[in-house]
Amino acid sequence: MELRDLAMQAATIAVEAGRHALQDQINPHDPRSTSTIGQGTQFTPGIDTRLIRYCRTKIAALDPMDGFWEEEAGNRRPGGRYWCLGHIDGPVNYVRNMAEWTLTISLFAVDEKGHASPVLGIVHAPVLGLTYLAAKGQGAIRIRRTIVGDKREKIIPSTMTSLHGSVVSFGMSYFPNESEKVLQIVSRMAGKPADIKRVGPVSLDLCRVADGSYDAYFEPALHSWDIPAVSAAAVVVREAKGTLWRWDGGHVRWEGSNDVVATNGLIAEDLNTYLSGR
């Protein structure tokens, strides 16, 4: 199956999973009920388990490829392709009955040298009625739910050429030392952009750079558990012709933590002045 067709099929799976998640969200939740996964806090353990099981079953029936990214860590072969499914991105928003949370699906390809990169990405925001999807070499589209049906449109970043008057979004960690770093940057930047937003989750913020809603997004110390969300949105950003890098200008590492910055490609230099501390 061609990547474009595969992306459409995977998006259908994400939308169906989103219906299950949305039904769960409207049920009462205790926001104090959390559990720990790795070094991060998982706010939605029960529904996450059910959603991942559902998506894995559906994707395996669609095309199992060479397995799942998180399961094949030491066995990913050159030339292989691996599905990557994440937990609900934006779990605090989800538990607090806010609209900004997503489900993500991505597909990684491993080249002959063993380097992996995402080649297909789906970001679905059920409450907002938005689905972003992209496949390598095929561009990026956004599907919006409207009162007259779904509207499908190609997306591109904004044409803002300066940080002055721009709209910038940032992400913030659960951990105090990481949060302090980004808040200091926001404080130094204040007064330059027309607006600096903090909404989340990372996958949705990145897609909003891709569709021109934001001119840039940055977040320090995205961890290994953020890889599913970042990888899915990364394909959308790049296929829309936006840019996505680490703060030091390197490629995003798909096996560890990253300081991530995405832009429309035109204000990267202005923004980097603040990220680099110059």
Automatic annotation (TrEMBL):
InterPro entries: Inositol_monophosphatase-like. It comes from the Bacteria. Pfam families: Inositol_P. CDD domains: IMPase_like. This is Inositol monophosphatase family protein. It comes from Bifidobacterium kimbladii.
